[in-house]
Amino acid sequence: MGLLRTFAFDPKTLAFLTETVYHIATKKARVSKNKKLRENLPLFVQLGNRNGATQEEETVIYHSTRSHAHTADSAQAVLTGLAPDGGLYWPEKLPEFDVAACLAGDTYFMAEKILTALLPDIPNMDQLVRRAYSGKFQTEDLTPTVQAGPFTVLELFRGPTSAFKDVALCMLPQLLTAAKTEKGIAEDIRILTATSGDTGKAALEGFKDVPGIRICVFYPHGGVSQVQRAQMVTQEGNNVAVCAVYGNFDDAQTGVKNIFTTCRDKELPFALSSANSINIGRLAPQIMYYFRSYRDLLDAGKIQMGDKVNFSVPTGNFGDILAGYFAKLLGLPVGKLICASNANNVLTDFIRTGTYDRMRPLLKTTSPSMDILVSSNLERLLYLLSGDTKLVSELMGKLNKEGSYTVPAQLLEKIQAEFTAYYCDDARAEEIMGRVYKEKGYLCDPHTASGWAAAEDYIAETGDHNAMVVLSTASPYKFPVAVLTAIGGDTSGTEFEQMDRLSAITGVPVPKNLSSLQGKEEKHTGVIEKAAMPEYVLNLS
Question: For an engineered disulfide with 168, which of 81, 285, 321, 453 has Cβ 3.0 to 4.6 Å away?
């Protein structure tokens, strides 16, 4: 039985869900570490767990978004990535979760508790979290927040590759290797990943030289920034492969999915998995930073426990914003989730109209990580809010064959109750980057600018003045031409000269992981047609 067959998600049910997941009464000792949080708990939080079950006693079964027949435990879901029918794994029922206790701990504690709840078949999660993150981020809290004028900016680019993907892709190799051991799998795992820019480097760095795993990254030829390309083609490691694909990101992503389909019934000397957000092991770690930012707002006195917080999320594949909704389902008081697109506004149109139409030109923008027309993770939301695997399967079939689909009016109403959407073209992004730097003293990249624009538009349209968090998904130094143009700087020279010039103007240091790319040897320079991707993977040594 799917989640929506247990919960109808009308207002009364949502209230009940919120009440039951906050089972504080049985966990007072854990909460007592943070007196401020305990004192600010609203009455419904203090009511406690009604059924007496503990998180540790629960199990989480995943099934395909396209069929209840394809099930897996959490370790199997992480290992396989994609369900046999092409669907995405989603839990049949969410576990009970102690939100206040989670918020009372540090960032590592939050990550451990969230991942333990969702992936209970993977043992020693506390050790895995420490191993994934310790010493790899610029700050101990991993994802700090900064106040920039009216908005709280959640900086997700303080990791080893200067992109938000680091939070998940430092963790995923630990989850995969632990799941592999737990299931007694002897053969190697081959990780396949399509990237619009940031996932590739983060995945390569995360899986570099991990025993028993080989990773292959495909990116659209000419479809990433110069810095993003340099990060990938210079990647070191004995188990990494990088190849450009003629076409756009959707071509690369479709090619990866086709490999899974093509190889499903073949006898291979390795197992296939994915590092894209279609893998629940990639999506789940992203939930943590929604909790982290909420805790920061509590500590700063900007909200009281139980207050709703809105999040504006630059969105391409719909994974990052879906993690925010996952956080809400676990009990975090999330208000509106604002989907921010660039000029490739397929998601904005969908959330506004209910029609998803990929049959449009893919525009190259200054925010290439959002240059996407097929947002794979949206499938999980369609299932979650409909509870109908048959419907989801039909919609995905239409998208594949006809290039578009329209959801029923009732489903659209549920989507719009939780999400809204806006888009920002390059000219608007340039204006915002320049204005935010000039007026607020904050330097942001084009993706973050789209999130800022969406936040402004949402407030102007609704008058909703709940606390607003804008997710900053990449370092401005990954897009120096766009940022220099916005602040009136000289854009001549190489990207490394541009980074140095940007730093000299703003006083913001260039991340070492980016400055160190200068002069590095290019090791991965191949370019292939999409049709050649399966052969390329099968022939990797």
Answer: 285
What's phi and psi for 321, nearest 5 deg?
-75, -30
The pLDDT confidence band at residue 58, using thresholds 50, 70 and 90, is low
User: Looking at 35-39, 205-209, 447-451, 518-522, which range is the least confident one?
Assistant: 35-39
Residues in the chain: 541
Kindly state whether residue 460 falls inside one of the protein's structural domains.
no
Q: Which of 278, 292, 280 is nearest to 117 (CA)?
A: 280
State the residue range of the domain holding 530. 165-280+522-538
Q: At what angle do helices 426-435 and 480-487 cross, to 10 degrees?
A: 60
Q: Is 41 left (phi over 0), alpha (psi -120 to 50) or beta?
A: beta
Confidence of residue 29 (pLDDT cuts 50, 70, 90): very low
The reply to whether 201 falls in a domain is yes
> What amino acid positions are annotated as catalytic residues?
165
pLDDT of residue 8: 35
- Helix/strand/coil for 362: coil
**Angle at which helices 107-118 and 125-133 cross, to 10°:** 130
Closest to 22 in 3D by CA, of 12, 34, 33, 14? 14
- DSSP string over 268-305: -SEEEEE-STTSHHHHGGGGHHHHHHHHHHHHTTSS-T
**318, 382 Cβ separation under 8 angstroms:** no
For the chain, how many structural domains are there in total? 1
The C-alpha atoms of residue 334 and residue 331 are separated, in whole angstroms, by: 8
CA distance 446 to 477: 11
What pLDDT was estimated at residue 20? 35
